[in-house]
DNA sequence: CTACAATGATACAATTAGTACAATAAAAGG
DNA sequence: CCTTTTATTGTACTAATTGTATCATTGTAG
């Protein structure tokens, strides 16, 4: 199987900082399906060497993508694509993806022998906490 | 009697180190009775091969569980679950493990921009379905 | 000239992998 | 039986890989 090497094209004349170009191009390759959730991105050093830039520049791009929850960077392990933040997908697809996520969660909870009551109560509590935290963040 | 093979699910994108995921999942399965005191865990090498990780990673997880007195590792013999932890400790661990599972689920759902309402509704629906399915299984 | 943003250099920390070893159990030989 | 050998299992130490943090340098707008 051919390893899909990430190919980015930097443009000096664009006037955009390198790290911004990296962010943009990874994002667009993601929405175009060239790279997919679960894929591992090149290491900061590998991509830096490929692009002939300092690896801190790549790290900066990765950090931005990480903060946007688009990728997950893990010290000592690497960086991975998470999932496409649902753009304007159909309502049906949206629902199906939530359904799949929820069923995975519930199956796991039941496998661990938690009761229906425990699960629903914990979901209520956690949502409540989450909402309160969100309110505090807005202040 | 089918040998109760330990089943762990690693998630690359969770951001948690592999050894931590192993620790958490063994702990969950213990407090929920899927594995019991006295049970022998897979050898570090067997579990490592199963999970496709280096055996030192499993060994690290086992060492953490050993230090927490949850398991007993014995060079040349194997690894065994120790005695039942006191009920109140067990109950606390049980709750914590459900809480962690639920928060991972909710964080992921929110990251995908689902609303609190959508999440709680879907959990209700899925639990309802699950219950009905369980009733049918009992017949 | 000054200030600030971008990039580079260097040192660091976390995770996982590689290798050799020690303890125990099981098998083999007598 | 008892001893020796071999296999199995966890341990210790080290190395390699990866991202992070901090500060220095550069270049450019104001």
Helix-strand pattern of chain A? HEHHEEHH
Strand portion of chain A = 5-15%
pLDDT averaged over residues of chain A: 88
Structural class by SSE content of chain A: mainly alpha
Q: Would you write up a description of this structure?
A:
Two copies of one chain form a homodimer. By secondary structure, chain A is mostly helical. Chain A has two domains: 12-81, Winged helix-like DNA-binding domain superfamily/Winged helix DNA-binding domain (Arc Repressor Mutant, subunit A); 91-138, no CATH class. Chain A has helices spanning 18-31, 44-51, 55-67, 91-111, 116-138; strands spanning 40-41, 71-74, 78-81. In chain A, strand 2 and strand 3 form a beta hairpin. In chain A, helix 1 crosses helix 3 and helix 2 (44-51) packs across helix 3. The radius of gyration of chain A is 19 Å and the shape is elongated. The termini of chain A are far apart. The relative contact order of chain A is 0.09. Chains A and B meet through helix 4 and helix 5 of A and helix 4 and helix 5 of B. The structure holds a DNA duplex (30 and 30 nucleotides).
């Amino acid at each position: 199987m051919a390893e899909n090497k990430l190919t980015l094209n930097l443009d000096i004349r664009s006037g955009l900082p390198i790290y911004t170009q990296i962010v943009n191009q990874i994002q667009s390759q993601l929405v175009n399906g060239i790279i997919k959730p679960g894929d591992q991105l090149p290491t900061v050093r590998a991509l830096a060497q490929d692009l002939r830039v300092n690896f801190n520049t790549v790290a900066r791009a990765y950090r931005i993508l990480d903060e946007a929850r688009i990728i997950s960077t893990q010290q000592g392990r690497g960086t991975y694509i998470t999932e496409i933040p649902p753009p304007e997908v159909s309502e049906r697809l949206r629902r199906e993806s939530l359904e799949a996520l929820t069923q995975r969660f519930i199956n796991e909870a039941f496998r661990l022998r938690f009761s229906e009551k425990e699960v629903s109560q914990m979901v209520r509590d956690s949502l409540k906490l989450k909402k309160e935290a969100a309110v505090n963040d807005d202040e």
